[in-house]
Design brief:
2 copies of one chain form a homodimer. By secondary structure, chain A is mainly alpha-helical. Chain A is 63% helix and 0% strand. Chain A is elongated and about 65 Å long. The structure holds a DNA duplex.
DNA sequence: TTCTTTTTGTATCGATTAGTATAAAAAGCT
DNA sequence: AGCTTTTTATACTAATCGATACAAAAAGAA
């Protein structure tokens, strides 16, 4: 019994056994929308299997269990709907990095097919499953660490004023971003989020 | 059968029947901590009754059902741990109002007995119960409306620059506040939150 | 005491939860 | 064909969910 990495079919040239009738990546996308909209424990297995259009044993065979499925969904969320974040970190100037993060967050509220808010923020903020909560918290922390390192580099390059603290600035930016996610989940429009982003940018140190 | 308002014992001078053996307000406080830490549907009735130190029928007799208990807890949360918000709105200058809101939020993370974060933010962000979710969203909206009205008054009084938009500023402030709640739930210290508050204040329009 | 009223504790309800046992179905290989 | 392997669908598990039925217990009133 070999554990097959999710989202990819067997690499063997000759396929053994009955082929699966569903696309694991498409199923993961559907599961993502369910978790995104209802949170980790708000999403029941019946919700998930119905949306993914597979039966329960297929889900367990392909993705492990609910918690592991959630982990795969988190990975896919970060490398999919949240991929702009990594690109934003690559912008030439720190000010541009932060601007892209703010407006990228505002832009997330404009897709009508995607649920409002952010899976990482609302997926497990308060949740009975401690492990799922920790997994989401770890990913929130990772994003902040990445931005902090980027701003520390900016400081070394003279891209930030001498009195600016990269760690505090990173914490501020991520705070605003997560607040925007909460507002979006509460029904805030993309226009409102953009205006919040513009105001939040006024706090950025003058260079 | 008369529905007895929660938190107050019978007003009749002569009490009929067996007196209840618990203090409803203390029980509500304990329930508040459970909801605060685990969210609406993360808090099971077994969690609640154990923390409240009452049995299930006592809970239902005194508070209705889980959803109504949550509503009473929300009221108590707003008039208790969140009472500083109403006082902040009464500050003389708009800048002071916002400052008190920011630092009041930072101060909420310092009580070691209380759960981290904000019940209103994390109680039901993503949750299966649509009614509980709407109830929390309504209270989030109410806070923003109150601040918006306060800032509109400030504008009329010349307490804000002519180019400042009270509605946008209110949205920005509540966005930061809710982001701080998320950060706090993720383990941010009061010191970190205070520094975020200071940076966020730099976005405030110069008067 | 006896009656009435309310709270209490226990034991349970049907529904739903996450997770599986089992066997039929569908493919390739020999 | 016959064999092997994997996925499929159905049906089921034990546990937990929110919510109650029921009767004993505890008070005042008559």
């Amino acid at each position: 019994m070999i554990y097959l990495p999710i989202g990819m079919k067997s690499e063997a040239t000759t396929q053994l056994g009955r082929p699966r009738a569903f696309d694991p990546e498409a199923a993961l996308d559907r599961a993502m929308h369910v978790f995104w909209g209802k949170g980790y424990e708000g999403a029941s297995l019946s919700n998930l299997t119905r949306a993914m259009r597979i039966n329960r044993p297929s889900l367990y065979a392909a993705f492990g269990n609910k918690e592991q499925l959630f982990g795969k969904v988190l990975d896919r969320y970060i490398s999919g709907p949240l991929a702009w974040f990594g690109k934003a970190l690559a912008a030439p100037k720190a000010r541009d990095v932060v601007e892209e993060i703010f407006f990228g967050t505002a832009r997330m509220g404009e897709s009508p097919s995607a649920p409002a808010g952010c899976l990482i923020v609302q997926g497990t903020l308060a949740c009975g499953s401690a492990s799922a909560r920790k997994e989401v918290a770890a990913r929130r922390e990772a994003a902040e660490v990445a931005l902090r390192r980027r701003l520390q580099r900016a400081k070394r390059e003279g891209d930030l004023p001498k009195n600016a603290d990269p760690a505090e600035l990173a914490h501020y930016v991520m705070t605003v971003v997560r607040g925007m996610a909460v507002q979006s989940a509460g029904g805030a429009s993309r226009g409102q989020l953009r205006r919040v982003a513009q105001i939040a940018l006024r706090a950025w140190p003058k260079g």
